Amino acid sequence: MFGEGNPVADIMLVGEQPGDREDLAGKPFVGPAGAVLDRALEQAGIDRSDVYVTNAVKHFRWEQRGKRRIHKKPTVRQINACRPWLDEEIAVTQPKLIVCLGATAARALLGAQFRLTQHRGEIVEGDGLPPMTATIHPSAVLRAEDDDREDQMAGLISDLRSAAEYVNARRVSAAG
Description:
Elements (H helix, E strand, L loop, with lengths): L3 E2 L5 E5 L4 H6 L6 H12 L8 E4 L6 E4 L2 E4 L4 H18 L3 E5 L1 H8 L5 H4 L4 E3 L2 E7 L2 H6 L2 H30 L1
Parallel strand pairs: 2-3, 2-6, 6-8
Antiparallel strand pairs: 1-3, 4-5, 7-8
Helix pairs in contact: 2-7
């Protein structure tokens, strides 16, 4: 499944892989994590129609449990196999900033040595790609314990707001 959104977006959001609902709908971030992402984008002052949303892995990896299809983390081989499609989406969209949603997306674009817990929110430049930053995946908010969920959401919103501020500052300096 390929991404969707503004084909000339200033911000590209890259998640891990489609989930069950995304796989069935053929669209990224339309399930529960997508609802969290939509709320976070709105609270960060970002219109979802202004961004491009995609995933590092283009297919849903799952295992059957009863009647349910349960998410399985993609392998390095699957991430590497899907990288040419992600690179093409980046080349076509030419975002001013890529926001990696979660550790898998961050490692896919920033390398295996990247640690989200240590470098969350930092702007990383180089390797012929647009500047990038990383934050938690919206599903982390869903998985958080009740007493931590609000803090996780606040952090996601703050990171997205910082991404928008970075892009706006670049737009202003380019115009000036």
